[in-house]
Design goal:
Elements (H helix, E strand, L loop, with lengths): L5 E9 L3 H9 L4 H4 L7 E2 L12 E8 L2 E13 L3 E8 L4 E11 L2 E11 L3 H31 L2 E2 L3 E5 L4
C-alpha cells in the first residue's frame, strides 16, 4: 500500500559557471564533502564513478544512530542540465532526487527536489512529523552551507519538506 509522498525543495545561487557547478555535483565523491559528519557518510563504490543513466552508487551511513547501506541509481542523466538519482535500497520507501542546473546572470542556480515516502505507513508518517522532516532540513541546510563554502553562493527561495505532487 502506497503511503504519502513528501517533497523537500531547495534552490541555491552559486557565483560559478554552470559547467563548473555541474561537474562538482556530478562527482559523487563530493557528497562526502557536503554531507554532515553526524551521518558518518562514506561512499563504498570504487572511484572514480562514471556517471550515466543506470550508474549505481553504494554508500554507508548512520541515521539516528543506526548504521545502514544505501544504493542509488542514476535514472536520468542530462549533462549540464539535470540528473536524477533514486534509492534502490535504503531507509525510505521511495526517494527520488532531482538535481537541476540553470545558468543565470553571474552564475548558476541549483535546485534540489526530493520526493520521498517514509516506510511503516502511519507510524512512518508520525516519525516524519516528529523527526525525519527536521533531520532532512538539517542535512540540506548543512549541504547548502558546505557548497556555499566550497563554491561561494547563498541559499535561495525554498520549499521545506512540503507534501509532494498530487497530495
Amino acid at each position: 500500500m502506497a503511503g504519502r509522498t513528501f517533497r523537500l525543495e531547495r534552490t541555491q545561487f552559486l557565483p560559478r559557471p554552470l559547467p563548473e557547478v555541474f561537474a562538482f555535483f556530478s562527482d559523487a565523491g563530493n557528497l562526502e564533502r557536503i554531507t554532515p559528519g553526524f551521518l558518518r557518510f562514506r561512499i563504498l563504490t570504487p572511484r572514480p564513478i562514471p556517471m550515466h543513466e543506470g550508474a549505481l552508487i553504494d554508500y554507508r551511513l548512520s541515521l539516528f544512530g543506526v548504521p545502514l547501506r544505501w544504493r542509488s541509481r542514476i535514472d536520468l542523466w542530462e549533462p549540464g542540465v539535470r540528473f536524477v538519482d533514486s534509492q534502490v535500497t535504503g531507509p525510505y520507501r521511495t526517494w527520488v532526487h532531482l538535481h537541476e542546473f540553470r545558468a543565470v546572470p553571474g552564475g548558476t542556480l541549483v535546485t534540489d527536489r526530493v520526493d520521498y515516502e517514509v516506510p511503516l505507513g502511519p507510524l512512518g508518517t508520525l516519525a516524519r512529523a516528529l523527526f525525519v522532516r527536521r533531520s532532512l532540513e538539517r542535512i540540506f541546510d548543512h549541504r547548502a552551507e558546505a557548497v556555499g563554502g566550497l563554491l561561494g553562493g547563498r541559499p535561495g527561495p525554498e520549499t521545506r519538506a512540503a507534501p509532494g505532487p498530487g497530495i
